[in-house]
From TrEMBL:
Domain B12-binding: 1-149
Keywords assigned by UniProt, alphabetized: Iron, Iron-sulfur, Metal-binding, S-adenosyl-L-methionine
Keyword S-adenosyl-L-methionine: yes
Domain Radical SAM core: 181-404
Listed name of the protein: Radical SAM protein
Cofactor(s) essential for the protein: [4Fe-4S] cluster
Annotated Pfam families: Radical_SAM (PF04055)
Top-level taxon of origin: Bacteria
SUPFAM superfamilies (UniProt xref): Radical SAM enzymes
Originating organism: Acetobacterium fimetarium
UniProt-listed SMART domains: Elp3
């Protein structure tokens, strides 16, 4: 039996370019891990990476025609619309190449499997939650699909259960990597699964199993062995840990990181990680930087303790500031997650957030300001906030999918300002899309344009706060303001 695993092409509309996290980064190794599991059992499996290898649908069809799989597995990613192009493609290739069975997996199917099975009759099932063992059992028991971890149609309805949680993550075979995995100058690695936190906007734990809410780390030796295997395959020496939370909890978590740092240092590589601010401590960061740490993403999320509490971040503003201080002391300027506009924000919250960003030098670069001065809270199915807002009758589900929702801001001034910032930052993003490469190469003319736009953006944000507070800015003149701001950006960038 042949299995083909597909990463489908992704497309994002211009108005959604600033909306992140429709699939957490950790999902990027979903297909690789399933592939690794099947290959370890000598099952004939091929990965076609339409995303990283930039294949279009005719090119993917040619691969399907060549391989002729019995089972087609698709890592289904929501991309802010209803995926009809992909569904039509699945229907077409299933019939044209006599594919016996199509299954989908990933975050989106785990939470929105009913909608997907209803929209696309050509999809036979969805694998829910962790999926390596489920996929293996599906192949071994084929064509019986009545197995744990699968949502499938039965007796006019849908029967569903969650996949078995992989507690011993060292026992997982290493991911199977297609050439797309090596196409962007770095190699993704997963050193752990789950998170010991519980932020309201996040669905990492609901995906990995709410009942156990447990971070599960691979041993440093197991990670080092995978890196050694990759280094034999490629010249790339930059690794990115896609773990939602690189650090495990407590002293055991810290000891593991120190041990891992020692092993990474021996390999003479560089790497990036994502972490909670409360785990940023001198001893660990100094060891990791010494071992090659160059990039880190930390979730600051807010500059106000009350907001952090609402988000159940379990951190404080002083934790945020301490983390920034330590990272900068060791030469790391972090990427930051920040939610400027959350559903219950007040103008006072926005002011405190702005002051926090300003005093911590987080508004110096356009690449950062354009994100932190706009990001709103994305509400996706599976998260605690989705459920809480639904229970309160405040959830507005998207026309595209039950997976995506928003809510009306409690405060009308915040609602107007959020809408304005969205229009203004999207206008800037449209320019950055075309000039990103130049700014990355530090082209002086582009850097100077970015600097001017950044100053305009930061100045405008501060001005808007004052105007909303004093009542000068109203919903009626918001369009005039946005138009004038965007024209100024056009002038600078032309
Ligand atoms: S720290 Fe919060 S946002 Fe990050 S993975 Fe954990 S629960 Fe999710």
């Amino acid at each position: 039996m042949k299995v083909l695993l597909l990463e489908h092409p992704r497309s994002y509309g211009e108005d959604r370019c600033n909306d992140i996290a429709n699939a957490p980064l950790s999902a990027c190794l979903n297909t690789g891990y399933i592939g690794g599991m099947l290959a370890s059992k000598n099952i004939d499996v091929t990965i076609v990476d339409g995303y990283l290898e930039k294949l279009d649908y005719p090119q993917i069809e040619a691969e399907i025609a060549r391989i002729r799989p019995t089972i087609l597995g698709i890592h289904l990613v929501y991309h802010w619309e209803n995926n009809q192009t992909l569904y039509q493609f699945i229907k077409h290739v299933k019939a044209a190449y006599s594919i016996s069975y199509v299954t989908v997996y990933g975050f989106y199917p785990t939470f929105a499997y009913e909608e997907i099975l209803n929209r696309c009759p050509a999809i036979d099932s969805a694998l829910l939650g962790e999926n390596e063992l489920t996929f293996l059992r599906l192949v071994e028991n084929f064509p019986n699909q009545e197995l744990q971890g699968i949502a499938y149609r039965k007796d006019g309805g849908i029967t569903a259960s969650r996949g078995e949680i992989m507690m011993d993550v060292d026992s997982l075979p290493f991911p199977l990597r297609s050439k797309g995995s090596y196409s962007f100058g770095e190699v993704n690695l997963a050193g752990s699964r789950g998170c010991y936190g519980g932020c309201t906007f996040c669905y990492i734990n609901p995906y990995y199993g709410e009942a156990i809410r447990k971070w599960r780390g691979r041993s440093p030796e197991n990670i080092a062995a995978e890196i050694d295997a990759i280094m034999k395959e490629t010249e790339i020496r930059y690794f990115y840990f896609v773990d939602p939370n690189f650090f495990g909890p407590g002293n055991a978590g810290k000891d593991r990181v120190l041990k891992l740092a020692a092993l990474l240092k021996e390999r003479n590589i560089t790497f990036g990680i994502e972490a909670r601010v409360n785990d940023i401590e001198e001893q660990a960061i100094s060891a990791l930087v010494d071992a090659g740490l160059r990039h880190i993403l930390i979730g600051l999320e807010s500059g106000r303790d009350e907001s952090l509490k609402r988000l159940n971040k379990l951190t404080s503003v002083s934790d945020n500031e301490k983390a920034l201080r330590i990272l900068r002391k060791y030469g790391i300027e972090p990427s930051v997650g920040f939610i400027m506009f959350e559903p219950d924000s007040t103008i006072e919250d926005l002011k405190i957030n702005y002051d926090f960003l300003k005093r911590n030098d987080l508004l110096e670069k356009l690449e950062i300001s354009v994100n932190v001065l706009y990001h709103h809270m994305i509400i996706l199915q599976g998260s605690a906030s989705y459920k809480a807002l639904q229970d309160q009758g405040r959830l507005n589900i998207s026309d595209h999918s039950t997976y995506e929702a928003d809510t009306d801001y409690q405060n009308p001034k915040v609602a107007t300002m959020a809408g304005m910032m969205r229009d203004m930052t999207n206008h800037i993003f449209a320019y950055m899309k075309d000039t990103w490469e130049l700014s990355f190469k530090k082209d002086p003319a582009t850097l100077s344009q970015y600097d001017l736009v950044n100053r305009l953006l930061v100045y405008s944000f501060a001005g808007l706060l004052n105007e909303f507070e004093s009542g000068e800015m109203t919903a009626e003149n918001r369009d005039i303001y946005v138009r004038s701001f965007n024209q100024s950006v056009d002038l600078i960038m032309s």
